[in-house]
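Hi C.,

You asked whether I'd gotten around to modeling the 122-residue construct. I have! Everything is below, sequence then structure, no commentary in between.
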Amino acid sequence: HLQLVESGGGSVQPGGSLTLTCSASPYPLEHYVVAWFRQAPGEERAEVSCISSLARTTTYVDSVKGRFTISKDNAKNTVTLQMDGLKPEDTGVYYCAADAGFCPVDPRSASWGQGTQVTVSS
């Protein structure tokens, strides 16, 4: 029953930054594990980063470690993905997903947002 909406995507040059936001309603995200997934053209959707329900644990795929940061803001009921040092291979549609349990998120049982496009090119 959780509703999710992503925002913040756009086009940026290599080395640039973007901030993606996942906004949730009506339930608090502190009750859910939340992950960001990326789907590149012609490829399967894959998890990029995950944050536990109480934000005590975060995970990142190796290709984004040191460049991306995931965080929760309980007052705003949002999860943010700060993306720095962007590369062309980061291009794709980014989705947030939330579920009960622990990281990683189970894509078969999660609630999903509509996605937001990120394009990194010269």
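If it helps when you're writing up: The mean pLDDT is 97.

Thanks,
B.
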